[in-house]
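Protein farnesyltransferase subunit beta
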Amino acid sequence: MTGSRPESSQDPSPSSRLEEILDDKLRVEELPDSDDDYEDVGTVTKEEQANMAYLESVKIPIVDKLKTDSSEVQDETLEVVMPFLEGNPNDFPLNIFGIPHLQKEKHVKFLKKALGDYPPPFAMMDASRPWLVYWSLQGLSALGYDISEYRERVIHTFSLAQYPAGGYGGSYGHLPHLAATYAAVLSIVMVGGEKAYTSINRKSLWHFLGQLKQPDGGFNMTTGGEEDIRGAYCALVVLSLFNLPMELPPDAPARTQGLTTFLDNLGPWIGRCQAFDGGISAAPGNEAHGAYAFCGLGALAILGPPRETLNAYLDVPRLVHWLSARQCAPEGGYNGRTNKLVDGCYSHWVGGCWAIVEAGATSERQSLWNRDALARYVLSAAQFSKGGLVDKPGKRPDAYHSCYNLAGLSATQHVYVYDDGAGVKGDLDAPYRWRTAGVYPESRIWDEEDEINEVHPVFVIPFKAARESREYFEGRQGF
Ligand SMILES: [Zn+2]
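Predicted structure tokens:
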């Protein structure tokens, strides 16, 4: 991936790639820079010509003329998104493929700010404290920023948010919740180190999880709360990273129904969350959704090798069909549900499903999705001019969309392999058998400068953080 990078969008020398894909008659003649009416004439740069030629090639050939609310908001969305895919309204420097560079410094600055103080109107976000910390730390890690400066603060924050009877609340004094616990645990594991690990009361956490296990196999999100697939995924993440005992605590209500371990009935329960159209929903009988699909696949990838668990509990071809249908054309990014709009956060929620699905569905390394189309959406349409990443152009950036756009971009760049022979051995050891197999070699969208760090396909944190946590708690089957 060498070659000179155009310094500006008006660089007179076309890249070799452009020469390759655009024949002469498709090129729009460019006016000389000396022309004073340059802007008024609407000159199209060579990069824009290439973008337009690509977008034309992926346009849906048959358009349903029926007007509905959904079709109208889709048309409005295209009007907003297309200028960013065709041109470069933010005036970002372009990479060797004529696509905006990833604005790493600006995004780092944005995410560091997200870990700072918030103005009074944000008081309502207090219950999301673990999420704000997790999204920001994970976004920074993906960008290659050393997060160790946050270790003491993370330990302090989550020591105070740890509920005496187990688990973590959204903030100080809040009741424990599995979503808050998941985000807190990932944050603690990401900063890592003995002091962080020993800040966790594993025994009370085990008891908390025991209260949530349901007789049908799933998990409630909180005591007396809703049972959904987030619960299954979040509980398994915590059980695996902290190497907690698989036996249910003696006071777990599910024991009265004959269950003895956290894993009882769990795989079949996840399987029942697969909807008629192949996607995965929050709970049996609900509408399929991208984020629940990731939770379901993440849970199955913790339960065992994806090739075994996916095929045991899911109709994989139907799932692949549904996931593929979530990638929008010509936008390239993903939506989260049928007939919904492209949104940068699904770059992870759906884009992040593929590594697991590929490990479960194929015997050879093979890409089932269009990585470049997603990378194009993230780089061209999801970067906010001043830093941070967004749902779609016109929206404000936030830590959530920054984290998951970056995770999706990382998924387009790296190849992950599930390796049966690697990693630790013990309960829920499957997620430690993943390894990276280099960058995706065929990209025509991002260059070396845009490359970001690998993200663990199951835990969505750095590989090293997941491995070190598990290794620390190895041999601590008790407490
Ligand atoms: Zn979103």
